[in-house]
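User: structure tokens for this one?
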Amino acid sequence: MPSTIAYSDLVALLRSIFLRHGTRDDVAALLAENCAMCERDGAHSHGIFRMRGYVDSLSSGWVNGKANPVLEDVAPAFCRVDADNGFAQAALALGRDMAIEKARTNGVSILAIRNSHHLSALWPDIEPFARDGLVALSAVNSFACTVPFDGRSALFGTNPIALATPVAGSGEPLVFDLATSAMANGDVQISARTGTSLPPNSGVDAEGKPTTDPQAVLDGGALLPFGGHKGSSISMMVELLGAALTGGNFSFEFDWSGYKGAQTPHTGQFILLIDPVRGGAEQFGLRVETLIERMKAAGVSRLPGDRRIANRRKAAEDGIPISHDDLAALEALAVA
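Assistant:
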């Protein structure tokens, strides 16, 4: 039977795990908050499920938990961070204020992060920008696990893209975050653990044949892009923005075979910030709200992020559901 844990207690437990396995205190705090947010909001494929991958990536030496990222001011609307083989969240924290200042001054700004590792969802990275009144778009590539349309082998990552925008009235920004593969790789791993089948047209096995068996996808198979050639083109765009533009690795360019248990893709992240006032619509938030209301009138019953917000509110009242086994596993990692 599942129990519950308070959000603050989960953050403290995860922070202790990161500290135990070699991160600086500030990095541990960032990652713990990030992972706990995902678990709280029901994004289980990027919540505590990922802790083993974080720990093994740190323990193997694949990622530098005590990295010293370097921020560079390279143009009036462009800044970049070399993450020093560390986590993207720490690089983002370093570059955040400069990127916001540039967006306020110039109307737009780009933050390009390279030499970084990202194992989480994208929405925790950009939701805070929308709360500050900015429109934020981000893309990050991952590891080669998705076959391009009309291709024969994995080349792209799951390659998510996310958008966050302020909304008038509701108090909650509109945030969506989606993989350009048919589903997230973490969800495939969860399906394999629980013995559930994948939806049709999600992946192929090692011989390139369609399969709904998650283990077949993981054992030499690959995911498919969503929407055929359209999703594949967007996934290619993420490779270009997240890797080529930032100076990071493409999803196929790094080799982690010598690092047992490593799971954090060593790639790059692209973030675009826009000050919506510069778009000529000073009441941008109201325009967003108008679109949302018209979508609801058209019969849309759930908007992107609605489930996360509902889970967030429920967790604030009742705590975050967690099984006894999962809690025991986390407590073991904190002392291992």
